């Protein structure tokens, strides 16, 4: 048998920063999908998609969270998860308060707002896991 002096390559497994990255990945995916779904239904005759309102910003934040889910640095993943998850809670809530304050009659929140909120909660749970694993 011949012995080799070359080092054996080791593979790093994903998630490198911790198990919270899996939660952050799922939450970011939901934020991205929820950005395109209807956010407001007006009396059942018209819908306003999220991408036409604040959903464009949640779409950008979904990609920020996606980057946090894939980056090997725990600090970067935590910061990106805080920004993506926090803003993905605030923007749909702001949209609901804005529409209710306009005095529009017969509107209902659409599915996209709830999907973005669910994604934000998963992203925040991922951040909690990332901070707790440190």
Mean pLDDT: 89
- Shape descriptor reads elongated
Structural class comes to: mainly alpha
Distance between the termini: 43 Å
- Radius of gyration based on Cα positions: 19 Å
Major sheet size, sense and barrel closure: 3 strands, antiparallel
Tally of discrete structural domains:
1
Number of strands: 3
Weakly predicted, low-confidence segments: none
* Order of SSEs: HEEHHEH
For the largest sheet, list the strands in their spatial order.
Answer: 2-1-3
- What percentage of amino acids are in beta strands? 5-15%
Helical segment count = 4
Residues in helices, as a percent range: 55-70%
Can you describe this structure?
The longest helix has 28 residues, at 74-101. 60% of the residues lie in helices and 9% in strands. The chain has helices spanning 20-34, 55-70, 74-101, 111-132, and strands at residues 38-42, 46-49, 107-109. The chain contains four helices and three strands; from the N terminus they run αββααβα. The N and C termini lie far apart (43 Å). With 134 residues, the chain is mainly alpha-helical. The protein has one domain (30-132). The protein has a three-stranded antiparallel β-sheet. Helix 1 runs antiparallel to helix 4 and helix 3 (74-101) packs antiparallel against helix 4. It is elongated, with a radius of gyration of 19 Å.
